[in-house]
Amino acid sequence: MAKMDKIEEKIYQGNYPLTEDEALFLLEEGDMLKVGALADRVRWQLHPDREVSFVVDRNINYTDGCITGCGFCGFHCEPKDAKNLSFDELREKVAETIELGGTGVLLQGGMNPDLPWDYYPGMLRAMKTAFPEIHIHGFSPPEIHWFSEFFHRPVEAVISELMDAGLDSIPGGGAEILSDPVRDRTSPKKCNSDQWIDVMRKAHGLGLKTTATMMFGVGESPADRVEHFHRVRELQDETGGFTAFIPWPYQIHKGRFIAFENTGVDYLKTLAVARCYLHNVPNIQASWVTQGKKMGQVALMFGANDMGSTMIEENVVRSVGVTHTISREEIIQLINSAGFDAFQRNNVYGRLQDYPGGIQ
């Protein structure tokens, strides 16, 4: 029996997991439409209802000052030139989010040595005291690892203090590719693969749910992508703490690592293989923010069951010239027109409101 036939039989029988060799075969030699059909099968096994979720929230960049200087980032600046949000500005952004029907905020910042430790739990308390209903999804593993190193506090102590101040979950940012030779080239001053996994393991152990991400297309090999998938699946087997996996391609800007823009074919195929391989991660998110709304719809046929956030505010991807925007009404319409019923969720995939026929 041909290798593709064996993989297809394995998936249709629900005989998981796929091996790394099988995932690599799908990436390197699998027909895109056949791989997409397999991913769609896995999606229906995990989510038998014809539904797609989304969240209404905003990304808040509390500082753009960062000393890591990752070559792919168009957002950061030197700490001395940074814009650091005040607690009043943070409260204003949360108030606007709630007025627009949002239920959460995603905090993202750089490694800024000019900010004291008290700023971080302080910002959480400022938001939570004023708006206890808001879900704070914040501080990626590289940020938490840097807090631990710079402020000489154990990772568990950092996470615990942030939780006490109001942190509800952790985003999977800063993963890029969980293969150290790739990280050494793209983000050498950021935490390594083991350290990223360690932060997530400790967060899960403290009861926090997190997401996992992958920014691909920076010159890594297909085997590097499979290694990334494997690290995520291995930790998920151990902790069960990941709610979702979110892959997106690198967006070319002045600090390019590659000669040509990543293609839609590569995005869809990588997304589909992720869905097939990560059988133990419940949700796969379509990246309309980087790929556009129509490609986001297509991703729903390639294994994705979630359309992500309406992104009331987003600055990091925008900084490299990608400016897709969407409203709650439009994201519901996109889901409906793709043949699914929409429902609004929170940042840890709790169901909030159904929109089976769109907004009435």
Protein architecture, described:
The chain has 360 residues and is of the alpha/beta class. It has a single domain, classed as TIM Barrel (Alpha-Beta Barrel), CATH 3.20.20.70. Helix content is 43%, strand content 15%. The chain has helices at 3-12, 20-29, 32-46, 87-99, 119-130, 141-150, 155-165, 180-186, 193-205, 222-239, 264-277, 288-291, 293-299, 328-337, and strands at 51-55, 57-61, 104-108, 135-138, 169-170, 209-216, 242-249, 283-284, 306-309, 341-345, 351-355. Mean pLDDT is 90; it is low at 314-324.
Could you give a short description of this structure?
The protein is of the alpha/beta class and 360 residues long.
Structural class: alpha/beta
**What is the mean predicted local confidence, pLDDT?**
90
Q: What's the CATH topology name?
A: TIM Barrel
The top-level CATH class is: Alpha Beta
**Helix share bin:** 40-55%
Q: What CATH architecture do you see? A: Alpha-Beta Barrel
Report the portion of residues in β strands. 5-15%
List segments where confidence is low: pLDDT < 50 over at least 5 consecutive residues.
Answer: 314-324
Q: What summary fits the major beta sheet?
A: 4 strands, mixed
The CATH superfamily is identified as: Aldolase class I
SSE inventory with pairings:
Elements: H1 3-12, H2 20-29, H3 32-46, E1 51-55, E2 57-61, H4 87-99, E3 104-108, H5 119-130, E4 135-138, H6 141-150, H7 155-165, E5 169-170, H8 180-186, H9 193-205, E6 209-216, H10 222-239, E7 242-249, H11 264-277, E8 283-284, H12 288-291, H13 293-299, E9 306-309, H14 328-337, E10 341-345, E11 351-355
Parallel strand pairs: 1-9, 1-10, 2-3, 3-4, 5-6, 6-7, 7-8
Antiparallel strand pairs: 10-11
Helix pairs in contact: 2-10, 2-11, 3-11, 4-5, 5-7, 6-7, 6-9, 9-10
